[in-house]
Amino acid sequence: MRSHLLNDTTAERYRRTVTEGVERVAAHLAATDRPFTGITVDALAPRIDGIDLDRPLYDTAAVLDELEEVYLRDAVHFHHPRYLAHLNCPVVIPALLGEAVLTAVNSSLDTWDQSAGGTLIERKLIDWTAARIGLGPAADGVFTSGGTQSNLQALLLAREEAKTDDLASLRIFASEVSHFSVQKSAKLLGLGPDAVVTLPVDHDKRLHTVALARELERCRRDGLVPMAVVATAGTTDFGSIDPLPEIADLCARYGTWMHVDAAYGCGLLTSLKHRDRIDGIEHADSVTVDYHKSFFQPVSSSAVLVRDAATLRHATYHAEYLNPRRMVHERIPNQVDKSLQTTRRFDALKLWTTLRVMGADGIGQLFDEVCDLAAEGWELLAADPRFDVVVAPSLSTLVFRYVPAAVTDPAGIDRANLHARKALFASGDAVVAGTKVGGRHYLKFTLLNPETTTGDIAAVLDLIAGHAEQYLGESLDRAS
Ligand SMILES: *Cc1c(COP(=O)(O)O)cnc(C)c1O
């Protein structure tokens, strides 16, 4: 069994095994013609249930054959141009190179003595990101597992900086279309049930700053503490970007921590054409970026950045066996001092290899392409009488619904749209997402694949209309 341990004597086995895996995936990619096979849980579960984990196959090729059956063949493929659903991106190859290296070396980024160069590379990427944002000379941050964790950590720092033990008095302000991790974080941070003040959005799904000003004033009048404002730079549902400069002014006036959740919109940091859409982000006290959304990085790759490095001390704890306090004075860089995690992957390496191979402009160009595609998709939808489209895109999201002129029953239209999404998923021809707007069911394209064309968008719209029409036709038959 020692032959399975990676070391100097097994290097050849390592090369062979991983190459076999890479060959399989490459062959699979070449043969993929749909984003999904449409497999159901009931069809797939028995295949996985049927495998006895206590009876190994002892053979890589056999394991890969089995994997084909239980996973690869029916996986949902983000690289397919007709995958248009969630905020998951196709990945760039230079990042996969980094991924292959980091898992084999298996550095852990909690301490210098488990990573060495990895620590310095992560720090340099944090500095690079902070500079792109414009956070100033005292900025710092750390890689995290995702936007959810980044938001949690940012709000932890905000809670500590609010400097009160009366947790029930703390308030967080966020728009009604902010990410649900804001609510989860408030709960985890021990705040009261009314801690998150949900604010309305304008016609473009951007936080209403008049309402924010009113609520901040009310908060102060009521003797409560405005702990943080969460501005979303790219809402998950619409890609809408809250008015960052106005929010920054209000935060300054009320002495409130400004957190910018740019999990989605961070791609604009490398944009060659649309960087100005997130102007004002430089005023933030903390920023969430998800490289695994708009930097085309594999999951996980995310970071939280802060304007003032000193605020990260709120996440600092010392353990004699790991990061004793004296190491701070010895200037040994232990990233665990800044992180909620302990053992932590060297995810930063993926971004490093990406920047070194493609350059930041390369990433920005890809993101610009999907933003431009969304603008074209919006024109298509706006001109198509079969569809109602919600807002002109600020990033790469389109929210719309099928609304046949002949059908006036809103519940029927809801059901037709729900049906179309499900039928499309079951067919595997395309994958789209859904959400609710004003209590009604809508469909959603999150465009993150530069390979997707307006032709794909038009074809998927036709498929949606076809499924919806068929559903409405059948329900008319049933009624008559
Ligand atoms: C996706 C998203 C998150 C959560 O990020 P994860 O990486 O999925 O944890 C937070 N905020 C916004 C606006 C998002 O779109």
Automatic annotation (TrEMBL):
The GO cellular component terms are: cytoplasm
Share an example GO biological-process annotation for this protein: amino acid metabolic process
* InterPro entries assigned to the protein according to its UniProt record, in alphabetical order: Aromatic_deC (IPR010977), PyrdxlP-dep_de-COase (IPR002129), PyrdxlP-dep_Trfase (IPR015424), PyrdxlP-dep_Trfase_major (IPR015421), PyrdxlP-dep_Trfase_small (IPR015422)
Give the record's keywords alphabetically: Decarboxylase, Lyase, Pyridoxal phosphate
Entry's EC annotation: 4.1.1.18
For whether the record's keyword set contains Secreted, the answer is no
The reply to whether Transmembrane figures as a keyword in the UniProt entry is no
Example GO molecular function term? pyridoxal phosphate binding
Q: Which cofactor does it need?
A: pyridoxal 5'-phosphate
* Modified residue annotations for N6-(pyridoxal phosphate)lysine: 293
Family statement: Belongs to the group II decarboxylase family.
Q: What is this protein called?
A: Lysine decarboxylase DesA
